[in-house]
């Protein structure tokens, strides 16, 4: 895998690429979360603390990157991670200038059959994993002060805010919205479909399974880089296109 340098437009903006998987209940509870932190400085060095870890310690999966749904099966559009590191964390190590960490989380409500069919995470796998309050202590510092990036970001942002009530990112960027703007007319805009359309090299993580959080966070990061480069975007233009309305200034319009 070739190390991936962030596009120039992202320099100076610390990012947390997030993907969630849920238990299928309403309101949804997180059963897996991945946070990929991206160095903010132009020289590749982060300007703040970077979380430990990277994607996957288990065997490489066989399926393509899939598409998820908040509540009904998965929270967001996720994929990765077996094994355990510390308090539920899955895997560790750098990936091309980024760091990824993922956790499995034991929910209060069992995983529904529909959710299990989508992401494959079972109640048995989660039985000895920490509850959210244990994972939250590790997750919140990783996402605080960083722009949140996600595919179909509105759902993941809403669910993560519910799980971290005092957290609010300085910005949210949605790769789904950005892809629809820059690549109109595609037959599908799920994360897996966009990865295939762009021909992205997703060989970095050791495990590549559909609907697991770590792999999809990695794919969303690759997709963001490709979209920003293809569109020749500055940071301001990226925000105008990809940020939810509540994060855009009132006078900002599309270009």
Could you explain how this protein is built, in words?
There is one protein chain. With 255 residues, the chain is an alpha/beta fold. It has one domain: Ribonuclease H-like superfamily/Ribonuclease H (Nucleotidyltransferase, domain 5, 2-Layer Sandwich), CATH 3.30.420. Helices cover 30% and strands 14% of the residues. Strands 1, 2, 3, 4, 5, 6 and 7 form a seven-stranded mixed sheet that branches. Strand 6 (147-150), helix 4 (153-163) and strand 7 (172-174) form a beta-alpha-beta unit. Helix 5 (175-182) packs parallel to helix 7. It is globular. It starts with 14 loop residues before the first strand and ends in a 13-residue tail after the last helix. 51% of the residues are buried.
Number of domains: 1
Shape: globular
The averaged pLDDT comes out at: 79
**Largest sheet descriptor:** 7 strands, mixed
Radius of gyration, CA atoms, in whole angstroms: 17 Å
Strand proportion, as a percent range, falls in 5-15%
- Number of E strands: 7
**Stretches with pLDDT under 50, minimum 5 residues:** 43-95
Helical coverage, percent range: 25-40%
- CATH architecture group name: 2-Layer Sandwich
Stated plainly, the CATH topology is called: Nucleotidyltransferase, domain 5
Specify the number of helices: 8
